[in-house]
């Protein structure tokens, strides 16, 4: 006894399905075409019907469960989590593959001139680094020489004073 009645807005479609005395809502987003937990609601509806017929469940308990499922459905729809067709892990892996392939394409698309310029730039950076290290060593050596000359002067002054006494 399915009686589907569709109500649509400009971005979402809400499908209302009547099964006996139970109403099940299914949300569809335009462009995606996937329903958000329709199967869960249908399964829930079947369980509620079975429990109602057997008399094991109270209407309050089934109402509470229904409300929890409804809240979960609204939250997932609001967050948009259930609307994506791929898991978050798949999206991250695809993004990494895309970035890696872009880097590979970028590396392969260099012209011979760019390769020569890149090598020349690397050589220039190495020369600058060596030159900076050499200047630093010379500065340390010059400081050592100055200190040594100062010590000689001090030592000669001390010896001259000691020789005068």
Distance between the termini: 128 Å
Structural category is alpha+beta
Low-confidence stretches: 1-12, 27-41
SS elements, strand count = 4
Percent helix range: 55-70%
Task: Please trace the helix and strand order, writing H or E for each element.
Answer: EEEEHHHH
Give the neighbour order of strands across the main sheet: 1-2-3-4
The radius of gyration over CA amounts to 40 Å
The fraction of residues in strands falls at 15-25%
Biggest sheet, open or closed, and with what strands and sense?
4 strands, antiparallel
- Give the overall shape, derived from the CA principal axes: elongated
**What is the averaged pLDDT score?**
72
Count of separate DSSP helical elements: 4
Break the fold down into its secondary structure elements and pairings:
Elements: E1 2-8, E2 12-19, E3 22-29, E4 35-36, H1 38-54, H2 59-79, H3 88-108, H4 112-164
Antiparallel strand pairs: 1-2, 2-3, 3-4
Descriptive overview:
One of its GO terms (biological process) is regulation of actin cytoskeleton organization. With 165 residues, this protein is of the alpha+beta class. Helices cover 68% and strands 15% of the residues. The chain has a domain at 2-83. It has a 4-stranded antiparallel beta sheet. The longest helix has 53 residues, at 112-164. It is elongated, with a radius of gyration of 40 Å. The chain starts with a strand and ends with a helix.
List keywords for this structure.
alpha+beta; four-stranded antiparallel β-sheet; 4 helices; coiled coil; FAM107; 165 residues
Kindly summarize this structure in a few lines.
The protein has a domain at 2-83. The chain has 165 residues and is α+β, with helices and mostly antiparallel strands.
């Amino acid at each position: 006894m399915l009686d589907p009645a569709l109500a649509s807005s400009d971005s979402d479609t809400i499908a209302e399905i009547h099964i006996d005395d139970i109403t099940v809502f299914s949300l569809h987003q335009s462009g995606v075409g996937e329903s958000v937990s329709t199967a869960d609601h249908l399964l829930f509806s079947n369980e509620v019907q079975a429990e109602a017929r057997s008399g094991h469940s109270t209407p309050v308990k089934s109402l509470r469960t229904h409300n929890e499922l409804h809240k979960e459905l609204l939250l997932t729809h609001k967050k948009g989590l259930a609307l994506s067709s791929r898991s978050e892990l798949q999206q991250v892996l695809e993004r990494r593959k895309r970035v890696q392939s872009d880097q590979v394409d970028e590396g392969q698309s260099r012209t011979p001139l760019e390769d020569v310029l890149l090598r020349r730039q690397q050589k220039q950076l190495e020369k600058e680094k060596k030159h900076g290290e050499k200047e630093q060593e010379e500065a340390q050596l010059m400081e050592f020489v100055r200190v040594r000359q100062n010590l000689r002067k001090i030592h000669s002054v001390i010896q001259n004073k000691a020789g005068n006494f």
